[in-house]
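note to self — DONT lose this again. spent like an hour looking for the file last time. sequence + predicted structure for the chain T wanted, 218 res
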Amino acid sequence: MRISVTYYLDVISSWCFFAEPAWAELKRRYEGRVEFLWKIALLDKTGLPASHEQEEWFYRRSGTIMRSPFMLSSAWFEPGQPEYLAPNCVAEAARDFGVTDDRVRLALAYAGLHEGKRFGDWKIAAEIGAKAGNLDTKELLERARSVVIETRVRADTADFHSLKVTQRPTFVLDSEIGDRAVFSGFARATPLVTALGAMLDDAEAYTTHAAHFGVPPA
């Protein structure tokens, strides 16, 4: 019985940064039983701060709530930017070179949010991503700036908006029996583990029932 978890994120999001341990815990706990996917959901100007001071205020809030031992850096932030295509498109483009795990987007997030590197710059983002994925910087940059990658990122962002939620991270849990759970703005593993456990129990019950009764009569 197929069960999937889709994680909608923006590489620049502090809440996504702090949700990564929860994502890693889910993947560890349910390896081989659940399909894990991530998709870019670009933040736009409605979700971006207006200044470094405002960004730092948000970082103090998320950092204290998540008990972070360090404060995130706002040095990467460029006031007035309507979105940050570069780090997100670089993370997406790495998949086309076979890097389908989390390491490129995690390296980008760490470099920007923890070290303050200006990953809104395409060249800087590509250098970070290429190093993390052991890829050629020029090839990665060219692919990241392609129409194909931007189109894919914007399509996934549109899928996110179709959920009628506003927060990154958002986790969407789906099963073949039609169950769906949407967790928008959750950054800890506990509620996700609870929901996934219930979905797996139901899926196993359906499998058991099918073994005893087969397909429903016509």
